[in-house]
From TrEMBL:
The keyword Lipoprotein does not apply. Residues 31-376 form the Leucine-binding protein domain. Residues 1-27 form the signal peptide. SUPFAM superfamilies: Periplasmic binding protein-like I. Belongs to the leucine-binding protein family. The keyword Signal applies. It comes from the Bacteria. Keywords: Signal. It comes from Marinomonas foliarum. This is ABC transporter substrate-binding protein.
Length: 400
């Protein structure tokens, strides 16, 4: 009888251990949810960012055995589609984190829902101040530099070498909060550099998710004198069309855009257009053969996402995912709050990016670094900021 009880007890103990092991194994899966553009003119943005992120998550699984499952939903860069996507991800798919949501007007919808549900929104693809409060919010953590930092980096470089006047500067922007925030930042820079603001900033606008830029081009054609530098706060399709039409009419300003503009679509549509185009970036060159994370990126994309395109946006997705998984090499956290605690505990850290990164309770933007690229020979090529003014002056570059 005693033996029988011992056997039963041992059997129950084995079952308990198996159950615990099963629970432990299931705890090593984390779900992250993304609402982004996977259709329409901005479809390449969702495709490229998610491809880079998935490659990094696959690397993480191969190194740790832990799974980060990326669940993506299409919002076509339409704010009205975002709320239902985000609520479905949180309430039906039970994601632990919202990851990499794309665009300012769309993130303006998803961020309040994240806060309402106490769910982290990590590394959204926007530099908007909307999700960069002065006092960091616990449930908003960014990877990338802000749009203000992007604009300041290139504007400061130009203003340091050139005697810009109000007539020299114009703005082409999207007619929404994305564009209006860019206008505000640009006006601050004009004031910072004591450029006489005797006239309002010359501005040309288009409506989001349209290619209706002809009226903006018409406004530019009748502008006298013609601006020498056009800053661009817009998405890829309309920005590319504006540049193409401007060049067809014989105008040759320096076009200066921020990272959100420089997607795969933008490059593809302007390959045959001789124009002077600068685009700021929130990542270094993925082609850099000396940068450890760039080497990892190229290898992991070839291994895990071989059909995907390598470009700054897929590199951003990769970097964001590498940062996100950095605290979890031993085990995945068991709650949403512990995810945030782990990320905030990173302090100053390094993933081989070549610049300092920091996350803490007081710092919810990992990077403040900005890089500069020039669209040349059908690709975005890294150049130093000191070259910006030379491009402004040197028309001979068009003939190269």
């Amino acid at each position: 009888m005693v033996l029988s009880r011992f056997v039963v007890f041992s059997f129950l103990l084995v079952l308990a251990n198996l159950s615990a092991a099963s629970t432990s194994q299931s705890a090593q899966i984390m779900k992250v949810g993304m609402s982004g553009a996977f259709s329409g003119d901005n479809a390449s943005m969702g495709e490229d960012f998610s491809a880079g992120a998935r490659a990094a998550f696959s690397r993480f699984k191969s190194e740790t055995g832990h799974t980060v499952q990326l669940m993506a939903m299409d919002d076509a860069y339409e704010p009205r589609k975002v709320a239902s996507n985000v609520r479905a991800l949180i309430e039906e798919s039970f994601v632990d984190v919202l990851f990499g949501n794309i665009g300012t007007p769309t993130v303006a919808v998803s961020a309040p829902i994240a806060l309402e549900n106490k769910t982290l929104l990590f590394a959204p693809v926007t530099g908007s101040s909307v999700i960069r409060p002065i006092t960091p919010d616990r449930y908003l953590i960014n990877y990338r530099a802000s749009y203000e930092e992007e604009l300041a980096a290139v504007f400061d470089a130009l203003a340091a070498e050139l005697n810009l006047t109000p007539d020299d500067i114009a703005l082409f922007n999207q007619q929404d909060m994305f564009g209006s925030t860019g206008r505000k930042h640009l006006n601050k820079l004009i004031e910072k550099h004591n450029i006489d603001p005797k006239y309002d900033l010359f501005q040309m606008e288009y409506s989001r998710n349209t290619l209706a830029v002809e009226h903006a081009v018409a406004d530019l054609l009748i502008r006298n004198p013609t601006p020498k530098v056009i800053f661009m706060i817009g998405s890829a399709g309309p920005s590319a069309k504006f540049i193409r039409l401007t060049r067809e009419y014989g105008l040759d300003p320096l076009f200066v855009g921020i990272s959100f503009m420089g997607s795969r679509l933008f490059v593809e549509q302007l390959q045959d257009i001789p124009a002077r185009i600068l685009v700021t970036q929130v990542v270094p060159s993925f082609r850099d053969k000396a940068l450890p994370v760039a080497i990892d990126f190229r290898e992991d994309m070839a291994k895990y996402s071989p059909q995907a395109k390598l470009n700054p946006l897929s590199f951003e997705g990769y970097i964001a995912a590498r940062i996100f998984t950095k605290p979890f090499s031993n085990e995945l956290p068991t709650s949403r709050e512990k995810i945030i605690d782990a990320l905030e505990s990173l302090g100053e850290f390094d993933i081989g990016l070549g610049v300092p990164l920091m996350l803490s309770p007081q710092e919810h933007q990992a990077s403040h670094s900005v890089w500069l690229t020039q669209l040349k020979v059908g690709q975005l090529v890294s150049i130093p900021f000191s070259a910006a003014s030379k491009l402004y002056l040197d028309y001979a570059n068009l003939l190269e």
